[in-house]
């Protein structure tokens, strides 16, 4: 029976993950679950944000359902003990190079978007962001120049194999949707982007059924608010993807609604809401659990080959929202548990 690692973490992580778990339990799937400590909770209990037992559990599991990490109590710790290191450690250890971030506006949430309702309604896209390369992992540091000035440097780098494998995820994702892929880069200025564009075009030969186009990232950022309905599947590097997906999330309404998947080249994946541990509202029952619930749906679809169960969860969230269920981030008064109840009530 497939094993799911539940790493709930800090802040609102445990609250929202509990609702995702209730939804999974109600579906009566043949899955087993094992919980592990991660983040500040793990540091406090075991002295490290990513204990060996948790890493072993993550390696053994068929998929990981992740809550959030981040704890103000841990802010003063040395870098390797900070809760956030757990997520980087898991991505690296499991080779989770592909980040899928769907952003769509749920019917009824038009007024939660930063955009005008008629524009917001057109948002339904997936950003495929490369997750283990780019400026985040190149040579970096602060050095002193010949003139005695401090100089910061972060090397931006991608090799062609890294570009090709994320490009394939982009093309495969496009195949499951409208057969259109937009690659976003800055090829007019950056050598990495020039290589990116060349390699994406080479890979496109294997996907003659997918229509490929290209856009510079500055233009993409502008188009995202001007006319987001033109976007369907976007593939881009780590840095550009980070920025564009935050922009997309605001266009799609609340941060509490958006799930994500981080995948490697087997079916294993780590699934988590795009939001963080939200210490400002932790423990108060104010967190919106929908992002966590929708992350569980992505897990069923991508790692466990249970697309029907995933569809049922997504339909239940959509129906709950359409029926007026609202946590405070959506302008309502429901608690985290009551929002979970509303989703459960709509599970066909
Ligand atoms: P991280 O660095 O982990 O991404 P962050 O600093 O970006 O964290 P979040 O923890 O995502 O911050 O919180 C940002 C804001 O959004 C906070 O005001 C928080 O209360 C709110 N928020 C985050 N998640 C939710 C949620 N599920 N429901 C309601 N509000 C949320
Ligand atoms: Mg954040």
TrEMBL record:
Binding residues for Mg(2+), per the UniProt record?
218, 242, 246
Cofactor or coenzyme needed: Mn(2+); Mg(2+)
Q: Cite the position(s) of the site with description Important for catalysis.
A: 136, 186
What domain of life does the UniProt record list for this protein's source? Bacteria
Keyword flag Secreted: no
| Pathway membership | Amino-acid biosynthesis; L-leucine biosynthesis; L-leucine from 3-methyl-2-oxobutanoate: step 3/4
* E.C. designation(s): 1.1.1.85
Keyword annotations for this protein, in alphabetical order, are: Amino-acid biosynthesis, Branched-chain amino acid biosynthesis, Cytoplasm, Leucine biosynthesis, Magnesium, Manganese, Metal-binding, NAD, Oxidoreductase
- Give the residues the record marks as binding NAD(+): 276-288
Q: Which GO terms describe its biological process?
A: L-leucine biosynthetic process
Residues noted as binding substrate in the record, renumbered to the chain: 91, 101, 129, 218
The Isopropylmalate dehydrogenase-like domain extends over 3-343
Biological role: Catalyzes the oxidation of 3-carboxy-2-hydroxy-4-methylpentanoate (3-isopropylmalate) to 3-carboxy-4-methyl-2-oxopentanoate. The product decarboxylates to 4-methyl-2 oxopentanoate.
Q: Which family does it belong to?
A: Belongs to the isocitrate and isopropylmalate dehydrogenases family. LeuB type 1 subfamily.
Protein name stated in the entry: 3-isopropylmalate dehydrogenase
Give the species: Sphingomonas aurantiaca
Upper classification of the source organism reads: Bacteria, Pseudomonadati, Pseudomonadota, Alphaproteobacteria, Sphingomonadales
Q: Per UniProt, what is the name of the gene that codes for the protein in this document?
A: leuB
């Amino acid at each position: 029976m497939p094993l799911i690692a539940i790493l709930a973490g800090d802040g609102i992580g445990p609250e929202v993950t509990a609702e995702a778990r209730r939804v999974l339990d109600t579906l009566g799937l043949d899955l087993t679950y094992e919980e592990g400590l991660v983040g500040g909770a793990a540091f406090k209990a075991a002295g490290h944000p990513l204990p060996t037992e948790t890493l072993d559990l993550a390696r053994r599991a068929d998929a990981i359902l992740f809550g959030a990490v981040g704890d103000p109590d841990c802010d003063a710790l040395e870098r390797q003990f900070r809760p956030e290191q757990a997520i980087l450690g898991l991505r690296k250890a499991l080779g989770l190079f592909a980040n899928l971030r769907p952003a769509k506006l749920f019917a009824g949430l038009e007024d939660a978007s930063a955009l005008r309702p008629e524009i917001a309604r057109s948002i339904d896209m997936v950003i495929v962001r490369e997750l283990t390369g780019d400026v985040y992992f190149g040579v970096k540091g602060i050095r002193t120049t010949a003139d005695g000035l401090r100089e910061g440097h972060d090397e931006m780098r991608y090799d062609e194999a890294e570009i090709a494998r994320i490009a394939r995820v982009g093309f495969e994702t496009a195949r499951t949707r409208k057969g259109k892929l937009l690659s976003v880069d800055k090829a007019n200025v950056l050598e990495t982007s020039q290589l990116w564009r060349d390699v994406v075009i080479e890979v496109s030969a294997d996907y003659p059924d997918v229509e490929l186009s290209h856009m510079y990232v500055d233009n993409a950022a502008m188009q995202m608010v001007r006319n987001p309905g033109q976007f369907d599947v976007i593939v881009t590097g780590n840095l550009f993807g980070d920025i564009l997906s935050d922009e997309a999330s605001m266009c799609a309404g609340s941060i509490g609604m958006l799930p994500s998947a981080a995948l490697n080249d087997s079916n294993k994946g780590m699934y988590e809401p795009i939001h963080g541990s939200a210490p400002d509202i932790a423990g108060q029952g104010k967190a919106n659990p929908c992002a966590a619930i929708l992350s569980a749906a992505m897990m069923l679809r991508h790692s466990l080959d249970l697309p029907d169960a995933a569809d049922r969860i997504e339909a239940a969230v959509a129906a709950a929202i359409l029926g007026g269920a609202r946590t405070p981030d959506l302008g309502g008064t429901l608690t985290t548990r009551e929002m979970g109840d509303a989703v459960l009530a709509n599970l066909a």
